[in-house]
């Protein structure tokens, strides 16, 4: 029996494409929301969850950081998906026929230049693949969708324009989550350790807590803050650092962090996707 990997969206979504790239051995399981994708893994309906966390053009995916700490799941891998955005229309339509395109707001925000150049109206949709399906059902050559070529194949649409994203390295990062943690060193590249923490309510606590990573030579690649329970004074941080918890330098840094915090939770240990570093250089 084939295992499953859950993602937010319906078939043809970029999460679907990420599943096919990262785990072609698993059957993609579409879920309407991130909460339901996480729940399907928690209940055992899927072995893994493919959860979008941020886009290089648009920024972080809203609400996902709030879901991670209480998900009960563990981050076991990451996947960087190069997001090529296509303009989809019904068979026979031309780009010049389009008057309006629909897609998720996060995708519309990645194509502002194209939309402005062509004078198109927009509709914010709940799901990119659903936008493609709706255009197919409407059958109107003036209506288009911004989505993947995978969605065009699934819903019988034509690709009217390719690679319309504003930035030529437009990339979405996904976290792959599991019910069980995996702390093994995997692959030949660097490992990433992720965790959440809350600093103690003392002066300069965050500054002092971060100092331990600098003095121990640990590179922090991400630090995100967000309020907890709508309380302005209760701030939680999500962090990622290069290294494995068995590394002495990271152990020392985490010990120092622990002194200035009232809560630390390890979220996952996983190998860095090679594209994490390619984006720093000239490669795509």
UniProtKB/TrEMBL annotation:
Signal peptide: none annotated. Residues 4-179 form the Prephenate dehydratase domain. It catalyses: prephenate + H(+) = 3-phenylpyruvate + CO2 + H2O. The keyword Lyase applies. The keyword Signal does not apply. GO terms for biological process: L-phenylalanine biosynthetic process. This is prephenate dehydratase. It comes from Oceanicola granulosus (strain ATCC BAA-861 / DSM 15982 / KCTC 12143 / HTCC2516).
């Amino acid at each position: 029996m084939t295992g499953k990997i859950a993602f937010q969206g319906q078939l043809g979504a970029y999460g679907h494409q990420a599943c096919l790239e990262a785990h072609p051995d698993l059957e993609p399981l579409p879920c309407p929301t991130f909460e339901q994708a996480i729940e399907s893994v928690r209940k055992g309906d899927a072995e893994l969850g493919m959860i979008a966390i941020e886009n290089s053009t648009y920024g972080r995916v809203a609400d996902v950081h709030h879901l991670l700490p209480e998900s009960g799941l563990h981050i076991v891998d990451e996947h960087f998906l190069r997001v090529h955005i296509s303009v989809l229309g019904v068979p026979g339509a031309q780009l010049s026929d389009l008057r309006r395109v629909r897609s998720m707001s996060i995708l519309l925000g990645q194509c502002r230049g194209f939309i402005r150049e062509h004078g198109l109206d927009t509709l914010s949709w709940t799901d990119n693949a659903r936008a493609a399906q709706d255009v197919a059902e409407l059958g109107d050559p003036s209506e288009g969708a911004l989505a993947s070529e995978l969605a065009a194949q699934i819903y019988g649409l034509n690709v009217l324009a390719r690679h319309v994203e504003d930035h030529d390295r437009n990339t979405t990062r996904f976290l792959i989550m599991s019910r069980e943690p995996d702390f093994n060193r995997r692959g030949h590249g660097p490992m990433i350790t992720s965790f959440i923490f809350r600093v103690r309510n003392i002066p300069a606590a965050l500054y002092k807590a971060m100092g331990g990573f600098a003095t121990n030579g640990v590179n922090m690649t991400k630090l995100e803050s967000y309020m907890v329970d709508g309380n302005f004074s209760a701030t939680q941080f999500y962090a990622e650092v290069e290294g494995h918890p068995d590394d002495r330098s990271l152990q020392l840094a985490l010990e120092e962090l622990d002194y200035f915090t009232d809560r630390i939770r390890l979220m996952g240990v996983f190998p860095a996707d090679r594209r994490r570093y390619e984006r720093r250089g000239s490669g795509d």
